[in-house]
Each structure stands twice: as structure tokens, then as C-alpha cells.
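Wed. Picked up where I left off yesterday with Retrotransposon gag domain-containing protein. The coffee machine is broken again, so keeping this brief.
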Amino acid sequence: LTHMKKESHETMREFVAKFNKLIQKIPVIAVPTLENQKCFFINAQPPDISFLLQRSVIPDLATAQSTATEIEDDLILAGRIKKDIPKLKNQGSPQ
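Structure written out below (C-alpha cells, as returned):
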């Protein structure tokens, strides 16, 4: 979890699903506390989203994830993040 970062090509919803799937794969004895899971999630975000999450009152991981999704949606609407992020460099480029 400490090395997991949201990639620029994935949406927040994709990252949340990937993050939760990884948490579920960790053996019960080694699963981080809920507070640490929230911290790992926030630290895995790009700087602009991480900053906004850290300034908010976030009680748990689920709230952090929904807030991050809302922030990303707001940044997309404001034109600060591209809406259709290509998964492959050459995908969708004119030939």
C-alpha cells in the first residue's frame, strides 16, 4: 500500500476499486487499521487531490474515497483534469 499511487491514466473510480481489491487481498492478520487505510489512500492521490483531502474532515476510508471522487469530478468540470484520459498512448490518435 505504501507504494501504491493513483496513475494519471486511471479515473478515481478505477483507483478506488483497485485500492479496495488490494485491501481485500491482504491477510487478515496484516490488514492495516482503518485509520491507516485512509491515510494510505489519501497519500496515494495526486498532490492537488491529496491536499484537498488533507484539509477536509474525513472520518473514514469510505468518506475519503467518495470525497476524492467528488473532487476529481469537480476538477474535470473546471477543466483542470482531462475527462477522457487515454489508457494507451496511441489509442484514439488519428492515423
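Quick read: The chain is about 55% helix and 0% strand.
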